[in-house]
């Protein structure tokens, strides 16, 4: 379920009560661990962090008017979704994350870049913080440019 919120506060105010605390805590963990060069925005109906057009004027290759997304956080119908494009683009990072997640004792529910948290009591906040800190804006931008260059 895509949010129509245009600000962070509006997004938070529209969250289901049972997810609000966990969502806000995930935002806090991301903010505390993300490379400060990344910008925060509302994009694609979710809270997101990415590469601003000030840093990378070419923008997102599919729609150059948009910034390049790195992390998105959304409240879906039945879960909180954390989208981490670094996991999609970097196999070594994905391998590290899946190995570390297994150590939490919880089952990982994940798509290509989407980690789904159906039970807010089982969110591994410390691991998410470590994941977010593992990739700088410069590393992600370099990887992004290489990826889109290879698709051309």
Task: Describe the model.
The protein has 152 residues and is an alpha+beta fold. The protein has one domain (8-145): Aspartate Aminotransferase, domain 1, CATH 3.90.1150. The chain is built from 6 helices and 5 strands, in the order ααββββααβαα. The chain has helices at residues 8-13, 17-33, 85-89, 91-102, 125-133, 137-151, and strands at residues 39-43, 46-51, 68-75, 80-84, 114-117. Strands 1-2-3-4-5 form a 5-stranded antiparallel beta sheet. α2 packs parallel to α5. The longest helix has 17 residues, at 17-33. The radius of gyration is 15 Å and the shape is globular.
| Weakly predicted, low-confidence segments | none
Instruction: Tell me the structural class.
Output: alpha+beta
The overall average pLDDT, rounded, is 94
Q: Which CATH first-tier class would you pick?
A: Alpha Beta
Note the total helix count.
Answer: 6
Q: Predict the CATH topology.
A: Aspartate Aminotransferase, domain 1
Query: How helical, in percent, are the residues?
Result: 40-55%
């Amino acid at each position: 379920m895509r949010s129509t919120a245009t600000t962070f506060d509006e997004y938070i105010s529209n969250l289901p009560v049972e997810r609000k605390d966990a969502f806000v805590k995930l935002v806090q963990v991301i903010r505390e661990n993300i490379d400060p060069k990344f910008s925060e925005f509302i994009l694609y109906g979710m809270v997101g962090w990415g590469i601003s057009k000030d840093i990378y004027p070419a923008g997102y290759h599919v729609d150059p008017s948009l910034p390049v997304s790195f992390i998105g956080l959304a409240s879906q119908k039945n879960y909180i979704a954390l989208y981490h494009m670094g996991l999609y683009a970097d196999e070594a990072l994905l391998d590290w994350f899946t190995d570390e997640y297994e150590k939490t004792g919880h089952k990982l529910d994940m798509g290509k870049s989407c980690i789904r948290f159906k039970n807010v009591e089982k969110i591994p906040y410390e691991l998410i913080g470590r994941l977010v800190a593992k990739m700088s804006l410069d590393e992600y931008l370099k990887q992004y440019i290489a990826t889109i260059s290879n698709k051309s």
